[in-house]
Write a structure and sequence with these properties.
By secondary structure, this protein is an alpha/beta fold. It has 9 helices and 9 strands.
């Protein structure tokens, strides 16, 4: 697991090519081909921003009231005048300072009627407002320096949203569902989501291609995650992993085995650690994430059928596999 964390923080802003690094890569190997990284990043940055395929076409924006974050939301907020727009805070892969690193995935979620707030600047894709950075983080004594974004910066997205919901004159005034807050993240960002999960305001947690280190080693300075943090789960949780080739697979499956006090699902799609984040509309992982949020934050029984019942949508007829406890 230590190597997984080192790989991601060594690169900072992640691309699909970097996310697919072999599971045997060491911290030193992760730094081997800057030119390949640059080319992969440039190619992904040419991919247009998408509005998602949900009923509420999404947009991406930066808000001066929340520096250091990127916001994904329905373009038209008028359908949510009755306070029905849930909020999802997002932690990036590598804990990178790029709130647009997962822009296709997050816009897809927003298009189904969600306000998504990602930590980090707008560094990727068309319309980027901050220069892209190819971070090179030195490794000392086997540990990396602190992540480019902190867990508290991820949590700040929720705090800001709730403040805006109560502020007269805000475009979000009275539109947000304050009882429908979630947190999610990919890889290192998944560890941030686990840290935030104990927040009593959280109603559900999505952990993508991540899990707490099985060996107990803390490879990242100022980011301490231990298995006892799993006791902080107090709401339904889903781990979404990339199958046995996912470098986080041993840790994520171990987390799942330890959690017995809340409803929890473990969904696997054998695509590796990079998931489907760079695919159109966020690919299959985004669709499953939307269904989970629709069920957990909106109570949609149709979406629930993706996960529950003997003939659930992930149970057969696809490349997905699912394990469930307490559901």
């Amino acid at each position: 697991m230590k190597n997984w964390a080192l790989v991601h923080l060594a690169f900072g802003t992640l691309s699909a090519a970097v996310l697919a690094l072999p599971v045997t890569a060491t911290a030193q190997q992760a730094d081997f081909d800057a030119e390949a990284f640059r080319r992969a990043q440039e190619e992904f940055n040419k991919v247009p921003n998408t509005a998602g395929d949900g009923p509420y076409p999404a947009m991406v924006e930066a808000d001066p009231g929340l520096p250091g974050h990127v916001i994904y939301r329905p373009r038209d907020l008028s359908p949510f005048a009755d306070g029905t727009l849930p909020v999802l805070a997002w932690g990036n892969g590598g804990c990178a300072d790029d709130g647009t690193a997962h822009r296709l995935h997050l816009a897809q979620i927003a298009s189904y009627g969600y306000l998504v707030v990602a930590a980090g600047e707008w560094r990727s894709g068309p319309g980027a407002t901050a220069p892209r950075e190819q971070a090179r983080r030195s490794i000392e004594d086997g540990r990396l320096p602190p992540p480019a974004t902190t867990t508290e910066e991820v949590r700040a997205g929720l705090d800001w949203a709730l403040t805006e919901n109560r502020r007269a004159g805000s475009r979000y005034h009275g539109k947000l569902a304050e009882n429908a807050l979630g947190v999610a993240g990919h890889s290192c960002g998944g560890l941030q989501a686990i840290q935030i999960a104990a927040d009593p305001r959280i109603k559900t947690v999505l952990v993508h291609n991540s899990g707490i280190y099985n060996d107990g080693v803390q490879a990242i300075s100022n980011l301490t995650v231990t298995k006892d943090m799993l006791e902080g789960f107090h709401t339904p949780v889903i781990y979404i992993l990339g199958g046995p080739s996912d470098i986080a697979y041993p840790n994520g499956t171990d987390d799942f085995s330890r959690v017995n006090h809340v409803p929890i699902a473990l969904a696997n799609l054998p695509v590796g650690h990079g998931g489907t984040f760079s695919q159109p509309m966020g690919g299959a992982v985004a669709h499953v994430s939307v269904d989970w949020l629709e069920w957990q934050l909106k109570g949609d029984p149709v979406a629930a059928r993706t996960f529950v019942g003997a003939n659930c949508r992930l149970c057969s007829g696809s490349n997905w596999t699912i394990e469930r406890k307490g559901m």
